[in-house]
Known about the structure:
The protein is about 35% helix and about 15% strand. The protein has helices spanning about 10-15, 30-40, 55-65, 110-125, 135-150, 150-160; strands at about 1-5, 50, 70, 130-135, 165-170. Helix 3 (about 55-65) links the parallel strand 2 and strand 3. Helix 4 (about 110-125) packs across helix 5. The termini are close together. About 35% of the residues are buried.
Amino acid sequence: MEIMYFVHGTTFDNAEAKCSGWKQVELNELGKEQAIRLGKNTEYEFDVIFTSDLVRAIDSSNLAWPEVDKIVDNRLRECNYGEYDGQDKKLVVYEEHIENPFPNGESIKDVERRMHSFINYLKENFYDKKIGIVAHRAPQLALEVLTKNITWKIMNIIAKWQLLHYYAILA
């Protein structure tokens, strides 16, 4: 199974240095342009595209690949930052919430458990497919931890933002 993982385009919250978490926030004009360019510049044919149920990911995937079937899956949601949703992104420090949930939210390990369940679902149902995912940062980092067998401590040291992440997952 081949997976290409994309993080959604820029949102109004992103532009204001706010973290969105589970808050529904739309793409701004730059985010819409990014999504359209992504679709035009990605020379890869997907069998299916999965997206989180948050509007910024759905809109990014629809703008990038309007002709490809999408499956919405809430396991691909961003981390629930609880009281920090919509607040200054400096409040979101993953290293402090690997095991301990954000206030009235979830922990990074909770995101990892969601992604583990999602990967198992893909293995059982889409093993021979080329899969696109349009979602968020925390689930992408969890996928890194799960597929590369590294710890969150190491992940926080080596993590860097990039447009595309490629994974080949074997049985």
